[in-house]
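User: I'm new to structure prediction. If I give you an amino acid sequence, what do you actually give back? Let's try with this one:
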Amino acid sequence: MKFDSRTTLLNFLLFFLLGGTLSAQNILRGVIKDVDSGEPLISATVLIKGTSEGAVTDFDGKFQLNTAQNFPITLLASYVGYKEKEVILSASGQFTTIQLEADVVSIAAIEVEGRRLSEKQTQSPITMESMDNIAIKETPAVSFYDGLGSLKEVDLTAASLGFKIINTRGSTAPARCGRCRSSTG
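Assistant: Good question. You get back a string of structure tokens that encode the predicted 3D arrangement of the chain. For your 185 residues, that looks like this:
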């Protein structure tokens, strides 16, 4: 039997190719869901603890991860707005359902208040008009913007069909409203 260099090279390549596929490949499969609603979590992250090996869930919340790690394997499942969860897997091929619970942070009520007029200005004899929800609903005008034109010191100009320009006392340039595309005058 005679061996040439081509046969030796071919046997060497086959040994490494088959050896790579014969090495232990563990397939980890599962789904990540919300614990309360049971809905799948899209784009949740699954990592093997202590490694950079991981996967992201698909549209149905399912993931598949191929690894050469030995069992038991600890998975870390995480999703924005949910608590991270560790799951220990003991065998390959088992389908795992991981349920994450929401990470709720509650805060006290926040009140934001702003004024254009100082307390001193409101005490002086100036007239102010405003439109609240009731006035908007009861205005005889066709639209809210036409209703603004009935207020004191408010000039409403129709620049074109369906396009109104509102100019108020003290403004330096007309403010565009309606179906406008730009906020410059």
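You can read the tokens as a compact description of the fold. Here is one thing that stands out. The mean pLDDT is 77.
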